[in-house]
Amino acid sequence: MSRISKSFCRADGRRLDQLRPVSFTADVAPSATGSVLVSMGNTRVICAASIEEDVPAWMKRQKVSGGWVTAEYSLLPYSTEGRTRREVSAGKLSGRTQEIQRLIGRAMRAAIDLDALGSRTIWIDCDVLQADGGTRTASITGAWVAVRRALDRLKREGRISSIPLSASIAAVSVGIVDGRPVLDLNYEEDAAASVDMNVVMTGKGTFVEVQGTAEDAPFSRPELNRMLDLAAGGIKKLLRAQQAALK
């Protein structure tokens, strides 16, 4: 594939390799152990980490040592242009919600030393206030900040002796829109993308998860490499933004 010009501008004026504006607002949920409102463009998610001094029953039955990290995710009814019905009203979670919850949990467990966490559970709640594409990647990026703030609090309170984190974690979407690989898709771009991909990486540059699907035409190895390069560059910037927010 020929080299893509970074000077090409998208509908919102961004370059191909440019993130939407990113910000973190801490302590938006005072009752949680750690919380943050993450904004990526018009996508806004409250991520809250709560500590439970217990572990799931399956860990006790199987005599699994250490702690656990799990996540719940929801689109609030007013987060989308047309009202989204609360899934609790339907009596079951959609397949999409279950998939995203598992993805957030896997991403956080990849960064946490569960044995060092001790016999406790970190519950991560990600509630989407406004959805404009990339809600799962914003949830992961915000969840790591919420978890880090929660663990900092545990250490200050003397409940843990050290922070049981092995890496930082962030995520971003990439895709092919109008034949061009682009970073951090908003809803309009996501709906028009011929390829949609979500990438989760650590601060060490290693991959936690890559989810990529051809919505229209199959994509080539050079296109895949270009998308991964875009994701890696975007995630580096997100990791810096996370660290700035923690300071």
Secondary-structure topology with pairs:
Elements: E1 22-26, E2 34-40, E3 43-52, H1 57-61, E4 68-75, H2 87-90, H3 95-109, H4 114-117, E5 121-130, H5 135-156, E6 169-177, E7 180-183, H6 187-192, E8 195-202, E9 207-214, H7 221-246
Parallel strand pairs: 4-5
Antiparallel strand pairs: 1-2, 2-3, 3-5, 6-7, 6-8, 8-9
Helix pairs in contact: 3-5, 5-7
- The share of residues in helices is 25-40%
Structural class: alpha+beta
Low-confidence stretches: none
List the domain count as a whole number: 1
CATH class: Alpha Beta
Strand residue content: 25-35%
Question: Going across the major beta sheet, what is the strand order?
Answer: 1-2-3-5-4
The CATH superfamily turns out to be GHMP Kinase, N-terminal domain
Q: How can the largest sheet be summarized? A: 5 strands, mixed
SSE topology string:
EEEHEHHHEHEEHEEH
What does this structure look like?
This protein has 247 residues and is α+β, with helices and mostly antiparallel strands. It has one domain: Ribosomal Protein S5, domain 2, CATH 3.30.230. It is built from seven helices and nine strands; from the N terminus they run βββαβαααβαββαββα. The protein has a five-stranded mixed β-sheet with strand order 1-2-3-5-4. Strands 7-6-8-9 form a four-stranded antiparallel β-sheet, with helices on both faces. β1 and β2 (34-40) form a beta hairpin.
